[in-house]
Design a protein that fits this description.
The chain is α+β, with helices and mostly antiparallel strands and about 325 residues long. It has 2 domains: about 260 residues, Jelly Rolls; about 50 residues, no CATH class. The protein is built from 12 helices and 12 strands. Strands 1-2-8-5-10-4-3 form a 7-stranded mixed β-sheet. Strands 7-6-9 form a 3-stranded antiparallel β-sheet, with no helix packed on it. A hairpin with a 7-residue loop joins strand 11 and strand 12. The protein is globular and about 50 Å long.
Length: about 325
């Protein structure tokens, strides 16, 4: 693992003629012994659309998650047919994708998905537009040697039927479970792209536009345990892995509680598994109803006119 000093040296040097100061991703220390200023992080996200949270996870948590998912990673077939050929091409033949990670790794469900710093940021980004937010997707992606660059995209495009203008729909992250470098495929991000006028276009119209100029792209190089956090309107993509070592990271995102999620988390983490988790994890997985009645609205997601998370606690699901 690279020392903190070497990480700071690596990220301060321009690469391939690019002015590193123009597109430097603002970094915050989110270590266990640090008082994290979630308001400052939120302001940076509003300005740039992306931040890096260093030391978000302890190395112990990183190791435990790696250990708990190892069997699933070993069994994963990168050539497994997906539901759509576009997604097949997007991930490519060198990526192992582990879905439903909260059901596989208890540490992921409790210490990663429920990380207090991530949730504090969600409170600021998402709660203004919903009664509660929920997990959108919790996957682990191991991009092996030879993995090509993903095409640049905005994650919020999965909700292309929500008309523009709309509030922030999502807060997403890629969390490093090994050191992320430009060579092994560190996430590519376009700071400020959440302010670009093309955000109001349909995904197809966005895809037809000229490619993003290289000088606008930053690379989220960071040590394991760190996360690059970005809003749904920020353009980004996985990088190419030109090393001989797999790059393992988690794609963890949250969305407004009244949206349909990318992964069906009730099936990915079924009630029998969810019942073994703390209540906070159950709520984030979507087992809690979305109750806006205290805000003058309605409600979503009841079972027998009860809050499912309460039924789960009583063994009623």
């Amino acid at each position: 693992m690279l020392s903190k000093a070497r990480w700071r040296s690596r990220r301060s040097a321009p690469r391939s003629g690019r002015d590193a100061d123009i597109n430097a991703i603002r970094r915050f220390d989110a270590g266990r012994d640090v008082v994290v200023d979630a308001d400052a992080i939120h302001r940076a996200l509003e300005r740039d659309g992306v931040v890096i949270l260093e030391n978000l996870l302890t190395l112990d948590v990183v190791q435990r998650v790696n250990d708990e998912v190892e069997a699933a990673v070993a069994a994963a077939d990168p050539d497994e047919e997906l539901f759509n050929p576009i997604m097949q091409a997007f991930h490519g033949p060198h990526t192992k994708q582990i879905t439903g990670v909260p059901a596989i790794s208890r540490t992921f469900a409790t210490d990663v998905m429920c990380n207090p710093t991530l949730l504090a940021i969600c409170d600021r980004v998402l709660l203004p537009s919903c009664a509660r937010y929920q997990l959108n997707i919790g996957h682990l992606l191991q991009r092996g040697p030879g993995a090509d660059e993903q095409w640049l995209h905005r994650d919020e495009s999965v909700w292309s039927d929500v008309p523009w203008p709309h509030p922030e729909l999502q807060l997403a992250s890629v969390i490093a479970f090994v050191d992320f470098t430009r060579d092994n495929g560190a996430t590519r991000v376009v700071p400020g792209s959440h302010h670009w006028p093309d955000r109001q276009l349909s995904p197809a119209e966005q895809a037809a536009r000229p490619p993003v100029a290289p000088e606008h792209i930053a690379y989220a190089e960071m040590p394991k345990g760190s996360a690059v956090v970005y809003t749904g309107g920020t353009i980004h993509a996985g990088g190419s892995n030109v090393t001989d070592i797999p790059r393992r990271g988690a794609h963890l995102s949250y969305c407004l509680g009244w949206l349909r999620t990318e992964e069906n988390n009730y099936l990915a983490v079924p009630p029998a598994v969810a019942a073994t988790l703390p209540r906070l994890a159950q709520e984030i997985l979507g087992y809690a109803m979305h109750n806006s009645m205290g805000r003058g609205g309605g409600y979503l997601g009841t079972v027998r006119m009860q809050d499912p998370v309460d039924l789960l606690a009583r063994g009623g699901l």
